[in-house]
Amino acid sequence: MKKNFTFIANWKMYLNFNEEIDLATSEYDNYIKLAKNTNSEIIICPSFLSLSNITQIFKTTEIETGAQNCSEHLKGSFTSQVSAESLNLIGSKFCIIGHSESRKYLHENENQIIGKLDMLIDNKISPILCIGENQEEHKKNETLKKLELQLKKLEESISNNANIREYIPIYIAYEPLWSIGTGNIPTQQHLENVFTWLFEKTQNINNNVEFKILYGGSVNAENTNFLKKIKHLDGFLIGKSSLDFQEFEKIVRLGSLS
Ligand code: 13P
Predict the structure, then answer these.
(1) Which of 238, 241, 243, 247 gets mutated to test ligand 1 (max ligand atoms within 8 A of its CB)?
(2) Ligand 1 centre from 236 Cα, in Å?
(3) Most buried among 128, 205, 209, 240, using CB within 10 Å?
(4) Which residues, in sequence order, are bridge partners of residue 41?
């Protein structure tokens, strides 16, 4: 059955290994009930170290897992990196790429990010590509210009990738940098503009590909009702609020109401 809405929990590096496993095991039944009762797609993205364990924990359930990054290389002398092939082998079906925190702290550029996207598609893993403008660009009204730039390589890559014909939905998460972790969210007008533009853009990229367009940045139980109303929105990418199961549950319940 087609899912109502997507909720991706990006646990970032907030929890240590034990805390991540504890959260997944102590709320195991609740995650499963939540996904079933709301007919939602729930994807948990823990840190690399616990990803395999947590994927195993939820193996026979509707709860999916995703990595927070991957290498743009196939394999070889790339100390510290993790290949898309390995993610596929442990059974994880999603991977966040181009997150603004990886762009900033790991100095990732557009070429590397699109290399990661190609690796993921080749390994049948859905990329969750993060895009968004910074505060300055936002003030100058340059959001769409920035998004256009960030999606340019995606368009080229998808039209050249033979494997894209297989069923691999691509997720695009609009995450304005000035909203992440600040408690500030964009106005309705801004979001309507961005999501209408993103919707039309993705419709024109490649007819054979299913795109989902998500919002991320300070999503919480208080602003879910407001955000949920944005036309063309398919789901949320949630950081801090996904660490507290009760808060996450509220977001999923509110967000999945039609
Ligand atoms: P917050 O929800 O903590 O603002 O983080 C958003 C985010 O970066 C999700 O990827």
Answers:
(1) 238
(2) 10
(3) 128
(4) 6
> Could you state, in chain order, the average pLDDT of each consecutive group of 10 residues for the chain (258 residues)?
87 98 98 97 98 98 98 98 98 98 97 95 96 98 97 84 75 98 97 97 83 98 97 98 98 93
Distance CA 221, CA 246 (A): 10
- 6-256 CATH: 3.20.20.70
| Residue 181 Cβ < 6 Å to ligand 1 | yes
> Which atom of ligand 1 is found nearest the CA of 218?
4
44 CA distance to ligand 1 middle (Å):
13
Is residue 236 within a helix (H) or strand (E), and if so which, with residue range?
A: strand 235-238
Measured in whole angstroms, how far is the alpha carbon of residue 170 from the centre of its chain? 10
Domain ranges of the chain: 6-256
Task: Pull the structure tokens for residue 222.
Answer: 């208080």
Torsion over CA: 53, 59, 65, 69 (sign): positive
224 touches 191 (CB < 8 A): no
Q: What are the beta bridge partners of residue 59?
A: none
- CB-ligand 1 contact for 44 (6 Å cutoff): no
CA dist., res. 96 & res. 10, Å (int)? 9
